[in-house]
Structure formats: C-alpha cells, structure tokens
Amino acid sequence: MRIALTGGIGSGKSLVAGLLAEHGAAIIDTDAIAHRLTAAGGEAIAAIVDAFGAGFIDRRGALDRARMRARVFADAAAKTTLERILHPMIRAAAEREAMAAQAAPYLVFAVPLLVESADWRGRFDRVLLVDCPIVLQIERVLRTRALARAQVESIVARQASRADRLAAADDVIVNAGALTSIAARVARLHRRYMRLTAQSL
Length: 201
Known about the structure:
A five-stranded parallel sheet has the order 2-3-1-4-5, with helices on both faces. It is of the alpha/beta class. It has helices spanning 13-22, 30-37, 45-52, 65-74, 76-100, 118-121, 134-144, 149-158, 162-168, 179-200; strands at 2-6, 26-29, 107-110, 126-131, 171-174. Helix content is 57%, strand content 11%.
C-alpha cells in the first residue's frame, strides 16, 4: 500500500513519519530527495544553472536556497520552471526508493505539496494529513528556522488551504497536543494500515 503523507509547513510531518518508521513503514521523503538533487554535484544542478544562471548556485556548488526561494515567490513563471526541472527527477528517485523498499509492510511518501501538485495524487492508495492550526504552524517554524515572520506567513499563504488539505485526506492526525497523544494516534493508524494491507493481499 502506498500512502502519501502531507501537511503544511510546521505541521509535524517529520514527527509522524518518524513514528511510522518506528512501526516498520518505509519512508520515502521527497524533500530529502530534492535536497540531494540540489546539493553540490546533484543531478539537478546543471539544469538549474541552464535555466536560472550560475548566480543561483552557492560557493559550495549547491542551490542557493534563499535566493531561489525569493525568486520563485516573486515570479510564478520561475516557480513553474523550477518545478519542471525538479518534479520528474524527484518522482523518478522516489520510485527507485519504493522499489528498494518492497519488503516493508507499506510505503509512506512524504509529499509536503501534494494538494498543490495534482499529478502526485493519483499515485497513492491513501492520503494522510498532519493537521494543526495555522497559528501553531507559524510559531513552530519561527522556533526552528531562521526565517522572518513575514516570510513564514507568506509561505503558509502560498500553500494549499487547510480546508483543501482536509478535503483531500483519507486520514487525519491533528498535531496540536502532547507527543504521547500523537504517538498513540500514529500507533492506531499503523494498525489500521496493517489491516488494510492484509485485506489487499
């Protein structure tokens, strides 16, 4: 079974992914894949230079994330160009990881922008949303990332709405409380996924 794990920035996707991994799920993290592709020597670097110029590559030879973030937020065409470069590469790498993880009871693809990228949605059996209030999202990001509040609010505003994510979800974990509560909810969800996996065999 292939499950898409999604949620807005600061919602707690990594926390839930880690808990599912402890139960034996294989986690395929598309953000981690994107970071590898855009690291120094990464597969996407040459295409990024061709499309945007060497000024978007830092001294180490990796993507200058801050500069690219500012560019794509200000220019919708630039965002589309970057997505056309990265999305096929991310998808191909994710499928390779999925093939290598066939022994796992089920696969969890962490796809933060699932709802925004409709081409991902038909490739999964279920969508798991990690949800939390927007105010809490913003506060978490401010505590963990070197971003100004205005930047964080802009990122949240550009992502799919909370209502749209909820409408797309088959399963929802609300991450607004204690870790012990989240762990118990994830354990119940794991048992459900194991039952569903068994029924599909």
